[in-house]
Request: fold
Amino acid sequence: MQQPRPAAGHDAGDPDAGRLAVLLDSAFLLLLAASLSRYLTHHPGNPRIPWVIGLSIALALAQPAGSWLAHRHPPPAPVPGAGTEAAPGNRVPRRRRWPLALVVALWAVLVLLAPSFAWCAVPLIYTALRTLPARAAIPLVAALTLLVVIAELRLAGGADATLVLLPFAVAALATGVFLFMDRQDARQRALIADLVRTRRELAATERREGTHAERERLAMEIHDTLAQGLSSQQMLLQAAERTWDTEPTTARTHVRTAAEVAARNLAEARRFVHDLAPAELADGRPLDQALRALAGREAAESGLPVRFHLDGTPVPLPAAAQSALLRIAQGALANVREHAGASAAAITLSYLGDQAVLDVADDGRGFDPGAVGAAGGRGYGLPAMRARLRQFGGTLTVESTPGEGTVVSAAIPLEHR
Reply:
């Protein structure tokens, strides 16, 4: 009897398949030995005995040989997602079915010679169902069952309706249950393959989204720290160059300030590479103190008067929300310094009960927010601010009129604490 390959989608080295192979092999050999013993006991001296013994030995050798070939050269496993695992009956290729054909042929001849061997058909029927597609297995099962019926009638020595109907009923029931379970198993394997494929796609999507999010984070940090710091350094060094000959003391002051900005930028770069909070918020410093220090530093570096005002009672905010508001204030002041041509600016932090609001206002030349939005914007500042606020359910509002200054307002709901 040939040992069937595992059902489609199963690995040939599956321990359950190995245990099933041992069970089928043992059952067949045990039935074969019992049938031979019964025949020899009930038919001593029968001239067919040499043929029966020879065929029994041939079957005992052919069955494990088929099993060995099936495990020694297993067919390739189907590729998940290719659709092959969903079709019951995709079994052993035709060139590997000959051991089963040989065993069935030997058994059929043996049953015709000695009806006692009829019940060896039980493992054969199961093997046929596992080895062949349904369109081939069902006729073979019917033929094997017919041989069993003929053998039983010969042993009974007369007609008996039970001996005719019972084997066919049992074979039909076993075949129906097997095919149903086989189809259920195929559907389950197809579902598992789909789930595995979906998990891989989700993992790939998460990796892409994580990469994109990290790029956005670095872009925002670079814009709000390094780019602004480099802009301040450029401005200070240009001022030092203009006054180097006429006001050397002032020029040196500008150079020292530029060096301080460079040192601070280096520290900031190291912090955002490690995803740490801004230096102004280190050691648990509250947001209002960090904004006040930012206003004083901006005034010292750029010469633009910047005042800070706190409105309401401070409410603890998550560190990430405080970092976002601080970065937004830095970005807004950078825009004021580079584009507004303002004579003064103000930072206001307000706690309004249900939200924290940061306002950065200036008295510069202003602009038309609608025109800038329609043109898609010319820089990264405002989109970066909105991206920061979206993480906390916040909103960004820009109010400006040409010639009347600008107010950038960032609000974060306090229920997101």
Remarks:
- The radius of gyration is 43 Å.
- Residues 306-417 form a domain with the Heat Shock Protein 90 fold (CATH 3.30.565.10).
- The first strand starts at residue 306 and ends at 311.
